[in-house]
Every structure is written in C-alpha cells, then in structure tokens.
Amino acid sequence: MRHALIFAAGLGERMRPLTNHTPKPLLLARGKPLIVWHLEKLAALDVRYVVINTSHLAEQFPEALGDGSQWGLRIRYAYEGAVPLETGGGMLNALPLLGPEPFIVINGDVWTDADFAALPAEPAGLAHLLMVDNPSHHPQGDFALDEHGKLHDAGDQRLTYSGIGVYRRELLNGWQAVVGQPDSTDDKHPRFKLAPLLRAAMQRDEVSGSHHRGEWTDVGSPERLAALNA
C-alpha cells in the first residue's frame, strides 16, 4: 500500500466553537494535530503518497502540513468545494489522485493506537474495515463481524467501524446503481455516502474486517476531545 486517503473535509458542526476557526483534523490531541498522528503512522508504514480531502477551512491544511516532506510523504489536496461531498463522493473525487492499487482510508477526526501495519496490503474483496467495540454514543454498532473475518450488515455481534480501512477503487464501480440520484446538482462532484456501497458489497461477501481492541476515539464533540487529552 503506497497510497492513502484521509477524509478531512467535514464541517465539524458538533465540535463548535472549536471548529469555527480550526478544521477538526487540525485540533490538538495529546500534543499534536489529530491528522499528524495519522501521517506519522503512514510514514512509518512506508506509505509515501497521501491524498487529503478538504473543504471547511481548506487553506489551513497546506499551511499546517505543507507538501508532507517533513514526514517523508508527498501530500496532495483534493478540494471538494464549499460543501463536503460525504465519504462516497469524497472518495470518488479523490480517485484521480490515487493509484490503481488498494489504498488506506482514514477518517481525519479519529484517534487510535491501532497498528496500521496489521492492515492487509491486499483486501480479500473490495474492502477491509478495522472495527472497534461500540462506544457509548453508538451502542448499536455498524456491522457484524463473523468468525471467518467477513462483515455483514445484519448480525448479533455488531461492532463500530473505526473510520480506518483498506479499499479497492473498484468498490465505486457502478456506484449510481446502488446510490441512485446523488444529493447534488453538480454532475462532476456528486455527494453521496460510502455506506450503501459497503452494504451492497457485504451482500456479495466482498468486505472483510478485523477487531481492534485497543484505544480508539471518534473525536465528535468537545467533551470527547477533552477526555482524550485527559
């Protein structure tokens, strides 16, 4: 995996007022911006090319991170416009900057001690998702992980998607047939979520997963950020 995509385009509405002047992935967590934790791990994994999706306060990312050379990375920025394109639209928008091989995808607003080296370089199907125990704010979880390492939309042992995974670009093939009419009037920049595509791939047994039992925080509120820093 030589390439990675970091989702950093969100408006951070639940984090206000902290995100009024700072994008959520640039908020400090345990002494450094959230996104820097990811960049350091990617560099240690020998990933060399990182695409960062931006929208809200987009100009702050190149100001803070530059071209990535300080980590031995090459960073490219994929601007989504004034309104973020959601995860599916954001990934589609970034595909021209990503190579043909599988790539790591990371939500820029999570913090974890997970070892990215444990992720498969080649997912068995179209995607491999890192799952975590359900946090108190999301007790119902997202997907069920079976004993064979396959993920399903339905099941008893449900876990929460960590926002970290390995994807093949082919997951987006035929996205319109699954998503339908996107939430956008701009044909060049459709806005849609990735989850329906993942669920459709799960029905074909094409999504695997693994369970990370260590630390993980979805930094979705000022309180969660304060708890992480404490």
Topology:
Layout (H helix, E strand, L loop, with lengths): L2 E5 L20 E2 L2 E2 H11 L4 E6 L5 H6 L8 E6 L6 H9 L8 E5 L2 E3 L14 E6 L10 E3 L5 E2 L5 E10 L7 H5 L15 H9 L3 E6 L3 E3 L3 H8 L1
Parallel strand pairs: 1-4, 1-6, 4-5, 8-12
Antiparallel strand pairs: 2-3, 6-11, 7-13, 8-11, 9-10, 9-11
Quick recap:
The chain is α/β, with parallel strands linked by helices and 230 residues long. It contains six helices and 13 strands.
Please characterize this protein's 3D structure:
With 230 residues, the protein is an alpha/beta fold. It is built from six helices and 13 strands. The protein has helices at 34-44, 60-65, 86-94, 175-179, 195-203, 222-229, and strands at 3-7, 28-29, 32-33, 49-54, 74-79, 103-107, 110-112, 127-132, 143-145, 151-152, 158-167, 207-212, 216-218. The strands form three sheets. Strands 1, 4, 5, 6, 8, 9, 10, 11 and 12 form a nine-stranded mixed beta sheet that branches. The protein has a two-stranded antiparallel sheet with strand order 2-3. Strand 4, helix 2 and strand 5 form a beta-alpha-beta unit. It is globular and about 45 Å long. It starts with a strand and ends with a helix. The model has no long low-confidence stretch (mean pLDDT 90).
